[in-house]
């Protein structure tokens, strides 16, 4: 068993690759449970985040990184028991977003490296120390340029939550500077952590790779855990 989180900026294809990986694990004879965070429709803090991201409770995108992280950490805390239960049974767990999303999006608000590291240490202590949320064994980072992310976000998609309807963008997805900062932070994190693996979502010519080709690289990164 292993706990795998799939991360990337908005529009990178995390939900698609989560599904493809779960299917591949089951074909390989492994039990697999999937999660998606924020759990907008299942958790109390997930519902709060739906309201925050829609702008219903003000401009959430500019809040201090530590304060901005807490609702997400608490949302994961609400589901932590289910994650632990699956892992205890020897099940592979694949999560569409996890604590890496806080590292990417909230950490992207910080440009000073010392401040970033201090924030990451604080988040690790809060998330995995105080709240005791499970720690992923492997983080798959789907690397997609911001312009590609925006192109994919412009395509019609299902509603993210009860607060963000079909085809709508949330506060973060409408903020180009925020997306650029998050992208830069994700690339920095990929070099900072040993358990992150980078999967390019575009080829050498800048064209979007097929979901099948991306999945093949994801599988290579995960296969060593089998």
Structural overview:
38% of the residues are buried. α1 (14-27) crosses α8, α2 runs antiparallel to α3 (65-88) and α3 packs across α5. The protein has helices spanning 14-27, 44-54, 65-88, 99-105, 113-130, 146-154, 176-192, 211-223, and strands at residues 3-7, 32-36, 92-96, 138-143, 196-200. The protein has one domain: P-loop containing nucleotide triphosphate hydrolases (Rossmann fold), CATH 3.40.50.300. A five-stranded parallel β-sheet has the order 2-3-1-4-5, sandwiched between helices. The protein has 226 residues and is of the alpha/beta class.
Q: Name the shape in a single word.
A: globular
> Which value, in Å, is the CA radius of gyration?
17 Å
**Cα separation of the termini:** 8 Å
Q: Record the strand order, biggest sheet.
A: 2-3-1-4-5
CATH architectural group:
3-Layer(aba) Sandwich
Q: How much beta, percentage-wise?
A: 5-15%
Total individual domains? 1
What letter string, H or E per element, gives the SSE order? EHEHHEHHEHHEH
- What is the residue-averaged pLDDT? 91
| CATH C-level label | Alpha Beta
Low-confidence parts, pLDDT < 50 over ≥5 residues? none
Structural class: alpha/beta
Number of helices: 8
CATH topology: Rossmann fold
List how many beta strands DSSP finds: 5
What's the arrangement of secondary structure elements?
Elements: E1 3-7, H1 14-27, E2 32-36, H2 44-54, H3 65-88, E3 92-96, H4 99-105, H5 113-130, E4 138-143, H6 146-154, H7 176-192, E5 196-200, H8 211-223
Parallel strand pairs: 1-3, 1-4, 2-3, 4-5
Helix pairs in contact: 1-8, 2-3, 3-5
């Amino acid at each position: 068993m292993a706990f795998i989180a799939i991360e990337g900026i908005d529009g990178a294809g995390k939900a698609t690759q989560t599904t493809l990986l779960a299917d591949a694990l089951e074909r390989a004879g492994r039990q697999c449970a999937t999660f998606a965070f924020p759990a907008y429709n299942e958790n109390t803090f997930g519902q709060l985040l739906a309201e925050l991201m829609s702008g219903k409770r003000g401009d959430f995108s500019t809040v201090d990184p530590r304060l901005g992280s807490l609702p997400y950490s608490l949302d994961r805390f609400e589901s932590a028991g289910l994650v632990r239960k699956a892992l205890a049974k020897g099940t592979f767990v694949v999560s569409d977003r996890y604590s890496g999303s806080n590292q990417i999006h909230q950490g992207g608000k910080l440009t000073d490296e010392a401040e970033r590291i201090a924030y990451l240490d604080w988040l690790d202590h809060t998330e995995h120390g105080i709240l005791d949320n499970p720690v992923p064994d492997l983080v798959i980072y789907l690397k997609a340029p911001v312009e590609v992310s925006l192109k994919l976000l412009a395509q019609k998609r299902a509603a993210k939550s009860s607060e963000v309807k079909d085809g709508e963008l949330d506060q973060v997805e409408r903020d180009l500077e925020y997306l650029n900062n998050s992208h830069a932070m994700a690339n920095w994190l990929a070099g900072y952590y040993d358990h992150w693996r980078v999967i390019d979502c575009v080829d050498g010519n800048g064209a979007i790779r097929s979901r099948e080709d991306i999945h093949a690289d994801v599988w290579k990164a995960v296969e060593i855990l089998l």
